[in-house]
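question for whoever is on the cluster today: can someone run the full assembly for these? two chains, 643 residues total. i dont have access anymore since they changed the login thing
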Amino acid sequence: MTDMNHLAILPILVPMIAAIANLLLSDQRSDKRVVGLNIGFSALLLLVSILLLVALAQSGQTAAAVYPLGNWPIPFGIVLVADRLAAIMVLTTSVLALAALIYASARWHSRAPNFFPLFHALTMGLNGAFLTGDLFNLFVFFELLLAASYGLALFGGGRNRVRSAMHYIVINLVASFLFLIGVALIYGTTGTLNMADIARAVPHIAADDRGLFEAGAAVLGIAFLIKAGSWPLHFWLPNTYSAAAPPVAALFAVMTKVGFYAILRLWMLVFANLSGPEATFGQTTLLVLGVATVAYGSIGALSSKALDRLASYLILVSAGTLLLAVGYNSPGVTTGALYYFVVATLAAGALFLLKDIIDQILPAEAQVLAVSMELYGDEEEILDEDQEVSRTIPAAATLISLCFAIAALVMAGLPPLSGFIAKFAMISSALNADNAPNVATWWITGALIVSGLFVLVSMVRNGINIFWTSLPEDGVLRLRPLEIGPIVVLLALCVVLAIAAGPAMGFFAETAAFIHDPQAYIQIVLPAESAL
Amino acid sequence: MELTLALAIGVLTASGVYLVLRPRTFQVIIGLSLISYAVNLFILAMGRLRMDAAPILSGANANPADYTDPVPQALVLTAIVIGFAMTALFLVVLLAARGLTGNDHVDGKGN
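^ ran it for u. tokens below:
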């Protein structure tokens, strides 16, 4: 058990050491050994995340690794809490990070200096945000991941990137200030920053302070919704994501999910612990925003001509779907949402990488047709030719279009792949809940099904445009194994999750049951004081 | 004192929000700085306003009521450092955008 507690900090330490090691190495761009070292660090992170998840899975449903930093007494010092939800998030991040890093090490990392340290710093911030059990520490990790993401959004330079990164930075700075206001209000009314302690203290807040506390929670919620890309706070997202370098955009696919995670964690912890009308505080808002985000993302996907743009709108659709699930507030729907989170993140990451491969192989004139050049792609970088030897893979075109088809099926939620299972789990448990289906049930069902249709239409349209009309006639394509490999692995994981849906769903169901039981979380973090 | 502080926070926030919504990047960065001052003051105020009270306990049997809450001061310190670093970073991006687009409009369009 003590070993497991120490595992909780490793997903933060490994990328931190990796980032520092990179800064000490002078030339990161050309040396093959440095590239290998970075892949090694990322693989180590993946190993640690797997160990953490396995350790948690083996030690019971309510197990969590609690790591008090500096061994301060728990409500006063900062604490890391790795429960199953955090471990799932960390593992998804690690898988995506390794895939994106391997992809980047074929070509992209040498485009500009300091790719690897920024990349590891972003991973560290993400893992920290998932693992921390302290509200202010969550802010610090948010800033860490944002600082790294600013650098990565600018990675490669060019007018487009600088312009969209500038908007991104301003919006996130304002969101950070909202975050601070929310944290300050919550501290002022509960007198603590530890999440479990907040959950414990909330039922005892004086009636006079309750309004202030709810205002704080609402302000904090807005900060999270901005990061989650919820309508109408999402306008930075499509520009930033489609302008970012593809491996960076792939890792950004998990960044919006940090907002979803924070809302899920805090809302379940704080408000599910209350009784009466306050237990559903903000639920309707989340549902409405979720539906609006899904609708906006679907329409945006339909209107996208370029694949990177389309992938950005698919991120919005998945963000909206997850918000819907949080707003619905039932363990069954949360189970489906967790499954959806994993597959949608992996598929979106794969799609961003796939877009880059397609950009490389499409003839230039086809790209002019496919992309609205004057808006988004006016300063494509000069491709420095073949640092890594590309070789002709037989049936390369088939492989790419198969990858595209799998990504499309997963994102649209069509059978037999995992996207369908996720949506089916959400809809079925929403309809089969104890109480009769209400308005919210029909909205969530409708949003999930209709958005699937929209996504399918837009994916198919893009696929036809790329694979049937634009590919070179002779069908001979050159692919780098280092680039197509990670995509295949990411999509294969989606397929594996569909095959192993039974055990995976069981695990997610236990996780969801734990999320919906704030008392269990409080017991673990504050064993001695939960009786108060 | 409450009124003074509330007015200060309100004026800083209002000016900051107005400036952030302006089209020039320099106005935006000044606006962000003003908002960050307002937020820092706000965090301090959430530890309740106290006069003549130290934030650090001294002596074994000190009465906590004689002291002001130290946590918001620690939070403010962190918030100041992070806000300062982010503003500095934004300044660099602002200059890069100025160089690449040739003007200081936030959309790079100019007039």
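summary bc i know u wont read the tokens: Strands of chain A lie at 65-68, 79-82, 391-392, 478-479. Chain A touches chain B at residues 136, 140, 143, 146-147, 150, 154, 157-159, 162-163, 165-167, 169-170, 173-174, 176-177, 180-181, 183-185, 187-188, 193 (CB under 8 Å).
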